[in-house]
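Can't paste images in this forum, so I'm doing it all in text. The chain is below; anyone willing to post the predicted structure tokens underneath?
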Amino acid sequence: MTLFGTDLPIIQAPMAGAQLSELAIAVSDAGGLGSLPCAMLSPADVRAELAKIGARRVNLNFFCHPPPRVDEVRERAWRDRLAPYYRALGIDPEAPVPSATRAPFDDAMFDVIAEYRPAVASFHFGLPAAEVVARVKQLGVKVISSATTVEEARWLAARGCDAIIAQGWEAGGHRGMFLATDLATQLGTFALVPRIVDAVDVPVIAAGGIADARGVAAAFALGASAVLVGTAYLACPESRISDAHRAALASGDETVVTNVYTGRPARGIATRFVREVGPIAGAPEFPRAATAVGPLRAKDPTIGPFWSGQHRIARTLSAAELTRALGA
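Text version of the structure:
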């Protein structure tokens, strides 16, 4: 039996906005642990997806970001920075924009966990309050979260995490940083994993730059108990990424860490928009930066974001084939 009772020590990374239950089901049926990202779903949406997942072992993932501070000066400057893109696409730069849809974990989502009792509840950007973590664990649900530094790993272990995801610099999507703020502190996966393994007494899950069985073997050689794989699953037919995102993944273009899409550092393919506006810019706090970018994305799909880790996808497999190949 592996860390979470699955046949294979392979965890599919939860990727908000890029997948729903189809991907999680395929991975779980193939012997790994499928994940359902809940940060951009309502409790009703999560319940609907869980009805499809049924009795399968699954990881439910939530964000734990603090409510953003509204800085009107910063937000005005951000709208002004994006105004040329609005005009180029025929959009009124002063038009109202929709609010961000990424919500932090709350009581309504705890009720979903209490009803469904998934195998794992994972968190990004830290953890909920200590009493909430205790309540989740009392349900028999394993709790895990992402660390990007040894300090964050120790913090998570001290607050009851059953395992810790060591998120290396290569990983696609949002950095799980919650104590660190300086991107210069961020280590690559194969430097970070052994440091965290040596620093905590709970199992460590390696994440970042792992796309084939060689990466899995390397992670285990460094002390990891499981691996978390994201970008390779994005290319699977079960993901829900756009055609533009699939084309960007297939192109093999370089990736970069940027905050221009949401206000938090995240690794994605270096589009023209990223290079011109950032990659790191004075965007409003997460997730408020996403509101002004939203109309641009809706009008021009090539703007992105195209989240991706630092590795090239050699070929496209189904999620089940990929899971078995990773476990080989």
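The first strand starts at residue 10 and ends at 12. The radius of gyration is 19 Å.
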